[in-house]
Specification:
Rhopdopsin 7-helix transmembrane proteins, 0% strand
Amino acid sequence: MRFDGGWRAGLLPAFAVAMAIALALLPPFPQPQDYHRFADTRALLGVPNFLDVISNLAFLAVAVAGLNAVLRPGRAAFIDRTEHLPYALFFVALAATAFGSAWYHLAPDNARLFWDRLPISVCFAALLSAVIAERCSIRAGLLLLLPLAAAGAGTVWYWLQSEALGSGNVLPYFAFQAYALLAILLLMHLFPPRYSRGADLYRAAMLYGAALAAELFDRRIYALGQVGGHTLKHLLAALAMYQIVRMLRLRTRV
């Protein structure tokens, strides 16, 4: 599939450059250590922070369902079979997120948080690559898959190294997520779809926003219902990711 996007073709690179300039002008922002002190620290069956740990099984369940949909012929709609590659990486990274996040919540600190954030960044990169392939050009999307994944992983590596050097800066990690999410929404707005069920991605974005809000109000939510906001974040985020599985299973060629 050829890509003839005209002026629209330059929007994503221009957006990336603008974000990079903004990051360069902003002062470093280290990881707040209060982040590691979650509301629900109850242990069960010898597992500390049990609900924050065990709720990561939701990510694993969605990842298995997603890989089953993507890798089994006929379970998901793809005009070109190579389009499954970004989604395959997305669900592999989501499975890794389940293990990385569980490992982190057993004993939260910066070093373990690295293994939580690394696969999350790859998830965002893979999903952006998939949308580029579907909305713009299959070739462009596939060519950008590994560079985007490397860029996302690089922001997490940079954050951890900057913390070790005493000048921690977590902003690039969050900026990459914001860039990927906004770029996906921009592509969906500017380029016509080749598949139905684009609304599933909007639902995924809204649910992920709700997950971030639950994380922000971790302690208040725990005080209300004895389930921490961070546990709720995991469940809402997994539900957001399930929207992508549902989209792949049900969509048709437009």
